[in-house]
Amino acid sequence: MKKEIIFLTPIAICIVVAVIIIALYNYRLKKRIIDSGPIDENSLKFLLSLSGIGSEILKWGLVLLFGGIGLILVEFLPYPADESTVPYGVVLVSVATGFLTYYLIMKKQEK
């Protein structure tokens, strides 16, 4: 378990830094568009697409929910994590199911 934490910690830190940088640049872009003057219909649509906070919350909520379900399912499997890769597969399939659920929900909302 210690080896996995040492491997995953830098990856998690890079992901957090990337998310923060993207949020800051989105903020700066929105601020520049608003400060540039009158906003037409195209600019307004673009600004609304940048601030899709509700869909981001839905996406990560579904991914974390399904990831948690996968971790719960792993507890009931007779395979230990250090001897078999089946528990990792169960968690990955659960997370993928969360992403697919999000995709289907967003596709249904576009119609």
Automatic annotation (TrEMBL):
TM stretches of this protein: 6-25, 46-74, 86-105
Domain of life: Bacteria
The entry's keywords: Membrane, Transmembrane, Transmembrane helix
Protein name as annotated: Uncharacterized protein
